[in-house]
Design brief:
This protein has helices at 7-27, 36-46, 53-64, 72-90, 106-109, 112-134, 138-152, 157-169, 175-200, 206-233, 236-239, 245-248, 254-279, 286-297; strands at residues 99-100, 103-104. It has 300 residues and is mainly α. It binds geranylgeranyl diphosphate.
């Protein structure tokens, strides 16, 4: 993620990213563990970089509620689910892409069956992490498992991906379908990241969890609209993934439905809503406030 805003923000972002990278390295299965090829493929996709937005949101939301507790395993768990979804999305039977996070996609670097299995393994490993690291606090553990499994399941992440595939073939794409796709394919994981962070803290109240969910929805929609704008306007080298794919595949996007200016306006509106919801949450909100702005201005 580009460093926006004050030096404080840039330093904090870098610190959180480093914490996430280190935890990834420590918590992932050893690359020499049998079968080594599978464990190497899991690390290949996870350690290819990426903005680490979702784990950073876990850590940032956690600190709103006063810290205490152990958010890092939950942060790594959601990055595993996110990365599995990218690996599977890139497969020939889905988006058939060659480039991800600035490197050859998993099925290009390994082969298709290994990429498929490494995605399966990353998804499964996310839940192993939660069970392993939080089982000493069963109520917290179940909340974390429920939050992540619901967000990753057939009604949210996978459901959003399903409707996205169906929309490609549809002759009559509409705004309602687009909203379903983006709420579930993109915003669900952003909402879940914030909730995982709150569930790792000692005292998040029910009304605060609801606010956090609404905040995540607005942030998630901003994120996806900006993604659509970048696909239409940025180049492949900057994105680290193939640019211009949406138009080529005749995908239903904000840009297609509302034009570039209309998409930008909608991103601004969701950002304003996110910022207003954020103010109702407890704790020091400076980092998240700047992060929300950075989402709007991101270049990759
Ligand atoms: C295969 C179940 C399944 C789901 C796939 C992730 C996904 C759903 C599709 C990829 C295409 C896409 C536009 C997804 C929307 C979410 C999104 C913008 C993902 C990319 O997230 P970034 O930009 O990626 O945070 P990095 O690499 O920075 O982590």
């Amino acid at each position: 993620m580009a460093s926006h805003g004050t030096p404080d923000f840039a330093t904090h972002l870098k610190q959180l990213t480093t914490e996430v990278e280190q935890a990834l390295d420590q918590l992932l299965p050893d690359p020499n563990l049998r079968p080594a090829r599978l464990h190497q493929a899991m690390r290949y996709s996870l350690q290819a970089g990426g903005k680490r937005l979702r784990p950073i949101l876990v850590l940032a939301a956690h600190s709103l509620f006063g810290g205490g507790g152990r958010p890092l395993p939950a942060a790594i768990a959601i990055e595993c689910v996110h990365t599995y979804s990218l690996v599977h999305d890139d497969l020939p039977c889905m988006d058939n892409d060659d480039l991800r996070r600035g490197r050859p996609t998993a099925h290009r670097a390994f082969d298709e069956p290994t990429a498929l299995l490494s995605g399966d393994a990353l998804l499964t490993f996310a839940f192993q992490l939660l069970a392993r690291h939080y089982s000493d606090e069963p109520v917290r553990c179940v909340r974390l498992l429920q939050t992540l499994s619901e967000a990753a399941g057939s009604e949210q992440l996978i459901g959003g991906q399903m409707e996205d595939l169906q929309a490609e073939k549809s002759r009559t794409p509409d705004a309602d379908q687009l909203l379903f796709i983006h709420r579930n394919k993109t915003a669900a994981m952003i909402r879940a990241a914030l909730l995982l962070g709150a569930h790792c803290a000692p005292n998040a109240a029910q009304d605060q969890l609801l606010l956090l969910t609404r905040f995540g929805e607005e942030l998630g929609l901003t994120f996806q609209i900006v993604d659509d704008i970048l696909d239409a306007t940025a180049d492949t080298a900057t994105l680290g993934k193939t640019a211009g794919k949406d138009e080529k595949a005749d995908k239903t996007t904000y840009v297609k439905l509302f034009g570039l200016e209309g998409a930008r306006e909608r991103a601004n509106t969701h950002t304003a809503q996110a910022l207003s919801l954020l103010e109702e949450l407890p704790g020091d909100k400076a980092f998240l406030r700047t992060l929300v702005g950075a989402m709007l201005e991101r270049r990759n």
